[in-house]
Design a protein that fits this description.
The structure holds two protein chains of two kinds.
Chain A: E1 12-15, H1 17-35, E2 45-48, E3 54-57, H2 60-67, H3 72-87, H4 92-111, H5 116-137, E4 139-140, H6 146-162, H7 170-182, E5 193-199, E6 207-209, E7 211-214, E8 229-238, E9 252-255, E10 277-288, E11 291-297, E12 305-311, H8 314-336, E13 339-342, H9 346-359, H10 365-377, H11 379-388, H12 392-404, E14 410-413, E15 418-421, E16 428-430, H13 431-449, E17 451-456
Parallel strand pairs in A: 5-12
Antiparallel strand pairs in A: 1-17, 2-3, 4-13, 6-12, 7-11, 8-9, 8-10, 10-11, 13-16, 14-15
Helix pairs in contact in A: 1-3, 1-4, 2-3, 3-4, 3-13, 4-10, 4-13, 5-9, 5-10, 5-13, 6-7, 6-8, 7-8, 9-10, 11-12
Chain B: E1 20-23, H1 24-44, E2 53-57, E3 63-66, H2 69-76, H3 81-96, H4 101-121, H5 125-146, E4 149-150, H6 157-169, H7 176-190, E5 202-208, E6 216-223, E7 233-242, H8 262-285, E8 290-293, H9 299-307, E9 311-314, H10 318-328, E10 332-333, E11 345-355, E12 358-364, E13 373-379, H11 382-404, E14 407-410, H12 414-428, H13 434-445, H14 447-456, H15 460-472, E15 478-480, E16 489-491, H16 492-495, E17 498-500, H17 501-520, E18 523-526
Parallel strand pairs in B: 5-13, 7-8, 7-10, 8-9
Antiparallel strand pairs in B: 1-18, 2-3, 4-14, 6-12, 6-13, 7-11, 11-12, 14-17, 15-16
The chains are: A alpha+beta, B alpha+beta.
């Protein structure tokens, strides 16, 4: 009897528990890719795309984006890294690792025949518990004390930068980042911090301009003879959208004191002015690296700033820009929600202990599942140790013991192969990072667990709905 | 003359080369049934709260993770002609009611599977069809008797929540309380006193980041756009809406301006600028403090808007513009003129905020009765948010159905078993061969609670027998208890698991229709597919028999 086809030729379907297992395995592979970038001793990845452009990065979301994953289940992991980047800015590697580890721990239960829906329900409960516990033990720093807040922000920025390429200069950059963010207004728009890259020089030559800087030089006749430095001047910005982000500055800047041609034609307002005329304290043209830059400094209504990055290789400065972006996002989030937790795996160990204790009080399959969740959380400190070359089992044992005795904030000490109170050691991160990571990772894990069949349609022809390929059999792989 | 090669005798002789032709019981009917069975197997595991999701990648390489049968089918691009009938029935259910699409599939598949048994037993197709149709009519007659309660006050959020909960539960088990609450709030807020409810008035806005539990509902609208100018928030906004670009009026025809000397040149640009300023000033003086435009915003105009402290928002979509005008009560103006007070709209609070990474503009009404409400969905992946959007759609559709017909029937398989029992006894009372058809129809109903059970890992047969005995004793509302370990029953009315009457009504009707249509086919003739980018030739299903 001829087989018959239900779906188009070339459709690929697979169903059932084996499908679930294969999805979980795919996610493992993804996490292998980013595993070694976690933490201060994490390594970076060099990726070359199809056009031959090389990118060096430590940031999980960037790596995953460049990986161009096709496997559908693994794509979910890439998505959550992206969403973590969008929501918080940092912690993208952590979220990928967490999700993959959740799935790994559950693999054995799935193979044994436990229904995925039961697992999903238990997971949701566990996540809710973990999130509420995090909120409970997070420490909030009073916003009124500006000094305190500033120190807090600097520590958070330093922790975020710790795992990146520029960790060596993290204090320098942390201070710069906090200065930059503090100079923004209420809404904290990211666009108002411009980052300009100039090749040459060293990292330490990077500077923060509280104002605007851009590359174009004077572009009207006689500019050579114009004085390069003005003070207390009024500016008419002509026909310009002062987009600090874009390099397309078609700025024809004319200083009012020079009547070039017709007064203020078609004025339009830039980012730093509210009236027709803008003001700033200082305007000068300087040579930075091989380029000439115009700097507007000290604008009274300025809610903008620019960071000028110097550095060697192009990849280097790009990675620096990404790292600074992460740090800026972290500081912004910290300003908005001011509660922090200790980093270095401390919060994960604490949650793991809490969930393990909780699981002992409930009967049934839930106990096993919540226990698995707790165990999965330990991946973060474990990976931190592995990346640093420490003996993970040893350190984790010590951590578990310490947490059981009540040391809530104990985590991995990177500098001495030991454990330490990370709160005192000023390794802090905003609690929103961890909460979001947990939520996203658990949602991704639930999503992948809930799929028991994958159906892949063959790619349609370019001209729209494909015509051929009809048959009457169905290839069905059970 | 070349020797003519004789073709195979019979029908095929008359058709072009490459056409395929199948006829008769063995070839056509059984293959159809088998194809439909395969299709319903696929979606069977997605039925109910414990249903699993399917990951479907369509021909554009877009990924869908969902357990909504209609979505899965739409992306599947089913080729088999008979199976396509069932798919169409499912689509019709979606359009008519919005929910219950999987019910149609599972039921129709079961009907066909059991019909195969009858045909093998020796019944003729028309007898089976006859039996099915009679049984269907009887079922629809009995259905009103199964009604266990009705929705009393749909303006009440808590009541609406409990009603929508069941629909959402089958999509997003675990989140259903939270989501049902959101949807109920959204629906109730736009449900007017007169009782009209427009599904389009509940909008959905998806923003990446955070988790599902951070989703909220807003009275008003949310747009993923930024304000064009400097002003980012207005309280008590008077809104004027333009569909034209916020620009100086451009002449339609190409004009030439003759400039005689430098002074005229300077005056020229100045003139345009002054005109622009006058217009913006006029708008401001009419009382507006927020301008919404459907077209581009010129730099010059923006400058003046900022000068006069007008907030400017640009919306690209015409539909968004229309909906916004409905929400705030403004009239869309096609030309850049100063609005009259009647033409302006009002909104309590308009502000720019950042959710996740996205800047959004929020038009918010403090009072409850905005014309439109928006559900802001957060989620960690795009797929998840798409799925939640589908769940919201289902919830809203359920609400709409309830507005039309307030009656409720118990869920969890209770209605199905009740119908099965009554139809079986009806069948036993009939004489003639249709008796068999009617009995099998009743048996098909069992497929639904069985799927529910099997998706939870529970023995289906045990559950069915328990259900039958409970219903026989008269407990009409006993259905499958999801939470319990093993086959256990619970009173559906008490636990609040109820479905709208219309969902079941249309589901049964459409599924039976589809199954009967498939059974009526006994010959399939497929023309050779035309090559190239032309859309595919339609296949012809000839009803040779009628």
């Amino acid at each position: 009897m001829l087989p018959f086809i239900l779906l188009k030729e070339g459709t690929d379907t697979s169903q059932g528990i084996p499908q679930l297992i294969s999805n979980i395995n795919a996610c493992q592979v993804i996490s292998e890719a980013v595993r070694t970038t976690l933490g201060p001793r994490g390594m970076d990845k060099l990726m070359v795309d199809s056009r031959g452009k090389a990118t060096i990065s430590n940031d999980g979301a960037t790596i995953l984006k460049l990986l161009d994953v096709v496997h559908p289940a693994a794509k979910t992991l890439v998505d959550i890294a992206r969403s973590q980047d969008a929501e918080v800015g940092d912690g993208t590697t952590s979220v990928t690792l967490l999700a993959a580890e959740f799935l790994k721990q559950l693999k054995s239960y799935v193979e044994d025949g436990l229904h995925p829906q039961t697992i999903i329900r238990a997971f949701r409960t566990a996540t809710n518990l973990a999130v509420s516990k995090t909120k409970e033990i997070a420490v909030s720093v009073k916003k009124d004390d500006k000094q305190e807040q500033r120190k807090l922000l600097e520590k958070c920025a330093a922790t975020a930068l710790n795992s990146k390429l520029i960790a060596g200069q993290k204090d320098f950059f942390a201070k710069m980042v906090v200065d930059a963010v503090m100079s923004l207004d209420e809404l904290l728009p990211l666009k108002m911090i411009g980052i300009k890259k100039v090749q040459g020089g060293a990292l330490e030559d990077s500077q923060l301009i509280s104002g605007v800087a851009f590359k174009k030089t004077f572009s009207y006749a006689g500019f050579e003879m114009q004085p390069k430095r003005y003070e207390n001047l009024k500016i008419a910005l002509l026909n310009v959208e002062l987009e600090l982000k874009a390099e397309k500055d078609n700025a024809e800047v004319r200083v009012k004191s020079v009547e070039a041609c017709g007064g203020s034609i078609q004025t339009s307002v830039g980012a730093m002015t509210e009236d027709t005329l803008g003001q700033c304290e200082l305007f000068e043209e300087v040579q930075i690296g091989g380029e000439r830059y115009n700097l507007f400094k000290g604008c009274p209504k300025a809610k903008t700033c620019t960071i000028i990055l110097r550095g060697g290789a192009e990849q280097f400065t790009e990675e620096t820009e990404r790292s600074l972006h992460d740090a800026i996002m972290i500081v912004r989030r910290a300003i908005k929600n001011d509660s922090i937790v200790a980093g270095g795996g401390a919060i994960e160990m604490e949650l793991s202990k809490y969930l393990r204790d909780y699981s002992r009080t409930i009967p049934g399959k839930q106990q096993l599942l919540i226990g698995a969740y707790a165990k999965a959380l330990e991946i973060i400190p474990r990976q931190l140790c592995d990346n640093a070359g420490f003996d993970a089992t040893n350190i984790l044992n010590k951590l578990r013991a310490k947490h059981a005795q009540g040391g809530t904030w104990y985590g991995v000490d990177i500098n001495n192969e030991d454990i330490t109170d990370n709160f005192v050691a000023c390794v802090w991160e905003p609690s929103i990072v961890r909460i979001n990571a947990l939520t996203a990772a658990s949602e991704a894990a639930c999503l992948i667990l809930s799929v028991d069949e994958t159906i892949k349609n063959p790619r349609g022809s370019v001209d729209g709905p494909p015509g051929g390929g009809r048959g009457r059999g169905r290839a069905h792989a059970h | 003359m070349a020797l003519h090669v004789p073709k195979a005798p019979g029908f095929a002789q008359m058709l072009k080369d490459g056409a395929k032709h199948y006829s008769g019981l063995e070839e056509a009917i059984f293959r159809n049934i088998r194809a439909c069975k395969e299709l319903s197997q696929t979606t069977r595991t997605a039925y109910g709260p414990n249903g699993m999701n399917k990951m479907v990648i369509n021909h554009l390489e877009k990924l869908f993770v969902t357990n909504d049968a209609a979505t899965i089918l739409r992306q599947l691009e089913v080729q088999h002609p008979a199976a396509k009938m069932i798919v169409m029935a499912s689509h019709m259910q979606e359009q008519e009611v919005g929910d219950g699409t999987n019910f149609v599939l599972v039921f129709a598949g079961a009907l066909l599977e059991l019909a195969e048994d009858l045909l093998r037993m020796g019944l003729s197709v028309s007898e089976v069809i006859d039996g099915y149709e009679k049984a269907c009519k009887k079922a629809l007659e009995i259905l009103p008797d199964c009604v266990c309660s009705s929705a009393k006050n749909l303006h009440d959020v808590t009541e609406a929540t409990s009603l929508i909960r069941t629909a959402v539960m089958s999509k997003q088990y675990g989140n259903e309380d939270f989501l049902a609450n959101l949807i109920a709030q959204a629906c109730v807020s736009i449900f007017t006193e007169s009782g009209s409810f427009n599904v389009d008035n509940v909008r959905v806005c998806k923003i990446l980041g955070s988790g599902v539990t951070a989703s909220t509902v807003l009275h008003g609208m949310v747009f993923k756009k930024e304000a064009e100018g400097d002003i980012t928030s207005v309280k008590d906004a008077k809104i004027v809406i333009f569909s034209c670009p916020f620009d100086c009026m451009v002449t339609e025809t190409k004009g030439t301006v003759l400039i005689n000397n430098a002074k005229e040149l300077m005056d020229f640009s100045k003139g345009e600028e002054d005109l622009m300023e006058a217009q913006v000033k006029a708008i401001k003086e009419a009382g507006a403090n927020l301008v919404v435009t459907g077209g581009k915003v010129a730099d010059v105009a923006l400058h003046f808007a900022n000068k006069y402290k007008l907030m400017v928002v640009r919306l690209n979509s015409k539909w968004d513009l229309r909906r916004l005008s409905k929400t705030v009560g403004a009239i869309v103006l096609p030309k850049m003129t100063a609005p009259t007070p009647e033409e302006m709209g009002h909104c309590d609070d308009v502000y720019l905020t950042e959710l996740g990474d996205t800047q959004v503009v929020v038009f918010k009404h403090e009072k409850e009765d905005g014309a439109i409400s928006t559900v802001v969905i957060r989620g960690s992946t795009d797929n998840l948010m798409d799925d939640i959007e589908r769940a919201v759609d289902d919830g809203v559709n359920t609400f709409k159905v309830l507005v039309k017909d307030k009656r409720l029937v118990p869920g969890g398989g209770a209605t199905e078993i009740e119908l099965a029992e009554q139809i079986t006894s009806y069948g036993a009372s009939r004489d003639g061969l249709e008796q068999y058809g009617i009995k099998k129809f009743a048996e098909a109903f069992e497929a639904l609670p069985r799927s529910l059970a099997e998706n939870s890992g529970v023995n289906g047969k045990e559950l069915i027998s328990k259900l039958y005995s409970a219903h026989h004793e008269g407990n009409k509302n006993m259905g499958y208890d999801i939470e319990a370990e093993g086959p256990a029953l619970k009173d559906m009315l008490e636990s609040g698991i109820v479905e709208p009457y219309l969902v079941k009504y249309w589901g049964i009707k459409l599924a039976t229709n589809a199954a009967v249509t498939v059974l009526r086919v006994d010959q399939i003739i497929m023309a050779k597919p035309s090559g190239g980018p032309k859309p595919p030739q339609g296949q012809k299903n000839f009803d040779e028999d009628d």
